[in-house]
Amino acid sequence: MLSARLRKLEVEANTAFDQYGDLYFEGGVSSFYLWDLEHGFAGVILIKKAGDGSKIKGCWDSIHVVKVQEKSSGRIAHYKLTSTVMLWLQTNKSGSGTMNLGGSLTTQMEKDETVSNYSPHIANIGRLVEDMEKHQKYTE
């Protein structure tokens, strides 16, 4: 059973990541799920954006798994984020015919962040996800 504290955080995070999806993906679907751990909590953020244009079809799927361990002071938390992006697209042009392309990329980062009223867990996780997706989009 999810603790009341995490359930409240989960509801707030779903609202925040709906806005994230609107800003960065011009819509799409997102879900944020949390669960308690013995020392902290963990969660997953799922984002899906599909496009179905007349000449190009495609889909972007992001899976972000985060593990949060709060330090004894309560003001610092250690975040471990593992992110996978899966991309698929299909074009159909008269000159080249149908082309399918797909791939995935998984990356991981760990970071200690201050936790406060100004920068709660949702903001910290949001920044980590944003930084990770930027990194994944522009990886060569």
From TrEMBL:
Keywords: Actin capping, Actin-binding, Cytoplasm, Cytoskeleton
Keyword Cytoplasm: yes
GO molecular function: actin filament binding
InterPro entries tied to this protein: CapZ_alpha/beta, CapZ_alpha/beta_2, CAPZB
UniProt-annotated location(s): Cytoplasm, Cytoskeleton; Cytoplasm, Myofibril, Sarcomere
Main localization of the protein described in the UniProt heading: cytoplasm
GO biological process: barbed-end actin filament capping; cell morphogenesis; negative regulation of filopodium assembly; regulation of lamellipodium assembly
Entry GO CC: F-actin capping protein complex; sarcomere
Family membership noted in the UniProt record: Belongs to the F-actin-capping protein beta subunit family.
Binding partners and assembly: Heterodimer of an alpha and a beta subunit.
Purpose: F-actin-capping proteins bind in a Ca(2+)-independent manner to the fast growing ends of actin filaments (barbed end) thereby blocking the exchange of subunits at these ends. Unlike other capping proteins (such as gelsolin and severin), these proteins do not sever actin filaments. Plays a role in the regulation of cell morphology and cytoskeletal organization. Forms, with CAPZB, the barbed end of the fast growing ends of actin filaments in the dynactin complex and stabilizes dynactin structure.
Protein name in UniProt: F-actin-capping protein subunit beta
Organism whose genome encodes this protein: Cricetulus griseus
Organism taxonomic ancestry: Eukaryota, Metazoa, Chordata, Craniata, Vertebrata
